[in-house]
Structures are given as C-alpha cells and as structure tokens.
Amino acid sequence: MDIKKIIESLSPNEKKILPNIEEKDIQNICKKSNLDKTSVTRALDYLKDKKIINLTQERKKIIEIDINGAFYRKKGLPERRLLNLLNEQRIIPLQKAQEQSKLSLDEFKASIGVLKKKALIELKHGKIILNANKGEIAKKTLEEIFLESLPIEYDLLTEEQKYALKSLQNRKKLIQIKENKTSKIELTDIGKKIIKSGIKSRNLIEQISPKILKKESLWKGKKFRRYNIKYPVSKISGGKRHFVNQASDYARKIWTEMGFKEMTGNLIQSSFWNFDALFTAQDHPVREMQDTFFIDKKITLPDKKLVKKIQESHEKGTTGSKGWNYKWNEEEAKKSVLRTHTTCLSAQILANLKPQDLPCKFFAIGKCFRNETVDWSHGFEFNQSEGIVVDENVNFRHLLGYLKQFFQKMGYDKIRFRPAYFPYTEPSVEIDVWLPDRKVWIELGGAGIFRPEVTIPLLGKPIPVLAWGPGFDRILTNYYEVKDLRELYKNDLTKLRKMKFWMK
User: Fold this and answer.
1) Beta-strand (E) ranges in 151-260?
2) CATH code for the domain of 471
3) Number of domain units in the chain
C-alpha cells in the first residue's frame, strides 16, 4: 500500500486527530485536537475505512443518580432523617414521628420498612421504638455509601453495592441505569507507518476556491488532496411533516374541495356540549369515569334559553318523543371533560347557526380522549374525522353518498354500510372498508341523521342534519402498515424518517 497516497488523502481533521490517537478516548481527542465531538467521530470513521485505525464499540452500563437521589444525597435519605429524630427521643408515636420528621406519607412508610428490615427499630402499640446504639446510628448505611459513590460502572459493583442498588431501585427516581457507548481506538500497522513517516504534505491544496482558480501561481505545480469518489457518504434525511399530519392535511383537502368549512374548538369541553346537547342521558354509562377524563373545574353554561331547551328535551322530549323521563341536573352539565368526540363541535355550530346560514356543511379533524386501557389497538387519545350537513333537502342517501365519496378519495374502493345505534342519531350506520391485501372488512366509525331531540333545541326546528364521526387512526394504521397504535405517537426519528409520504 502506498503510504504517500494515503497521507495525501487525509483531510485536515484526520491530520489533527492522528497524533492524538494514543489518547484512546473521544473526549480527550476532542480536547487535544480542538475539534467538536461530531467532527472527531466522523474523522475516526474515515480513518477506519482507510484501515489506518481499528475502531470498535463497547457498551457499558452506568448507574447514575436521579432527581430524587440527588436531593436525598444532599439532605439525607428519609430513613436517616427519621433515625436522627429517634436518636433524640427514642420512643415516638407513629403520627407524631411523621409530623416531626416532615416526611411525606410515602417517605415515612418506606423509612419504617427500611429501618425495621435493618433491625434498628420496632413498632409497639402505635409507637416507634429505637433499638440501635450510638455506633449503629452513626454508621452510614450501604444505601448512603452507594449514593455517594455514583456514578459507577455496573460491572464493577461489589456484592454490597449490588445489595444497595436493589434496595434503591425499588424507590422512585433515586437512581437510573444508562447504557453508554464507548469507542476503543487502536492504530493499525498502516497507521503506525503513517505516524512514523510524518503526516504533513507540502504544497497540498485541500480545497478549491474561486480565489485559487483565478490566480495560476496558487495552484500550478502543486498537488491536490486525493479524494475517493466511491466512498459512501452519510444519508441526508430531508425535513417533512409527521405522517399523521400529512394524512390529516390530505383529509382536510378532500372536505374543503367538497365545499365544507372546518370546525375548531377546545380540547376541554363542558359535559353540556360533550353529552347533554347531543341527547346523551346523564345516567348513561358513557359518562362514567371508566370512559371519560373529567377535569376538576366547572364550566359556565351557555345562554339560559338554550339550556332550558336542552333540559326539556331530556326530561320531556320533543315532538313525537318522551325524552329520558328523569330530572335533568344542571350541575352535572357544568362538569368539564377532555372531549370524547369532535361531535361536540357540531353541536356548538348548530346552536350558533342563523336561518341565512343554511344550507351549510362543516367538518373537523382533531384529537379526542377516552379512558381506555392502553394496548396495541387502544389508546387514551385518538383522532376523529367529524362532519355535518345541515339542509332541509337532504336525506339518508345523501349521507351515504358523502361518506362513500370521502372514503374513495382516501383510497378505499369498496365501502359498505351496516345498521347501527347511537344515542343522538336515527337512522344510524357503521362504515366498513375492504382491505384487499388482507382480504378483510374493517369498521371505521359511525354516522347517521341527528335525532329531533338534538336538532330542535339547537336549531329551533327539526331540520335534517347528516352527521358522521369515524375514527381517523384506523385509516392511518392501515395505510402506513402500523401494527401497534402507539407507534402513531412515538418520536422514533429513525422510523419517522423511513415512513412513506401520504400518496393516496
């Protein structure tokens, strides 16, 4: 191998690094070469490809102190603070001990458990009794010694330190275990020869500039740094919108092209708009804590006349309806919730419409929240696509037509509708789409025509209102082949960069 040619191919950063390779640590090489970590890491990769160095990665587990651990290292562990108190009084009632130690209930309970396990205290008749002598009290515990020793490499732990680690791991945010990557750097035989021969190249032009090209004397008779044009360069990932936002923007485009206006509103809504205005009974299971996130704040209700109409709709019904036959509670309607659907926006729009606004069409795409157990197919937040058409001349077939057109534009060729039930629509349907690659039908959400119990209080008369609110996340998971719904909300940059663009 021609050592001279290799030297002529070295970049300025590579030349800065090579004399400092014996440091064998990237941080030290950065200091010696006066380069940042990124520049050093990149230059090391180039030197490795030129077979000048051997570069291997080592993974090490490092135990570091966490936020609560840092506090306790400074102020003392809870059991130490309780032990110091007992050293002064020796016997203290439990309640008094907690008050005087100024420990939280969780800290106090944990301290009792630790000190009992170490046989330093005993509990009798609701009192804490100190069993330790002055020497035992003064002696630092294994946990205290361990906290003071951090950070420390996991593989270097003694048996005593492992015991302390296990004890502290059961406590919240005292310690954390991180995996650190370290680079092992060694010169190859070629690298040793280059160092021995010297790495300076005279009359070597590193970079061509307009200034050099203009003046012949600056480049004539001189050598240019050798470049390997076949050398693989690092991949450059262009900026792009999050794939969920891409799909949402596409859906917005479809609705606006169909003549719809977008509805927007707060994520926090009153129960009045989220449930009552949509004729959902106040004792309906969907309003329970098991399904809804309630917020500890009451919201002022809208116009009293409107509230009265909603109340009458619930208690007595409207034309041809008996309502729910119960006493409607205004305080229940004031409760605030994280909206469980975007249909609450439709209710607010209807309440503010004037006769001259009709006919009209609105849509919404936004986040909703349900108190669900999080797994691969469920989450506590999801995206919903909402829509309403308010027109005296529309009917059920128009509803099916709007839905069919939307989902076809979203890339689904086969759509079917099944009868369904919802508290605020009648008739109601479920929307299914066919997935040809999986050969299955999947359900995407519900739709229907608002009941008179919804439209009469809000609009003043039973004008037909076509309404739908299919979940949007199902569309996303199918298109992007996401098997776990939680992937929609993770910030894994590697996966996000690989996600295909929305091209339907």
Assistant:
1) 152-153, 175-187, 204-205, 223-224
2) 3.30.930.10
3) 1
